[in-house]
Amino acid sequence: MFLIYCPHCEEHREEPEFHASGEAHLARPEDPEACTDEQWGEFLYFRKNPRGLHRELWVHSAGCRKFFNILRDTQTYQIHGSYKVGEWLEVDVQKDDEVSSS
Ligand SMILES: [Zn+2]
Fold first, then answer.
1. How many Å lie between the centroid of ligand 1 and the Cα of residue 11?
2. In angstroms, what is the span from residue 88 Cα to ligand 1's centroid?
């Protein structure tokens, strides 16, 4: 068991209190009606699966029930930091290791 820092509660809590909700920073198309089926399907179902740094959306489901983001290394499980939705976290890791959002 490991500890995760909740930026809303401002404390470390045990991992079973949290639930991973997939990739973070997914932008919903501004006009879904204008999307092709392929574009909409891409938004709904296709996610990155990087080896290395990955920004993930988590929810403190057994705590404050708020969503936040985690920057985690998928190889080592090391969490480089947690931050609130709408914010961004810079870490001192080589930029090449991070998956670009474009
Ligand atoms: Zn919390």
1. 8
2. 18
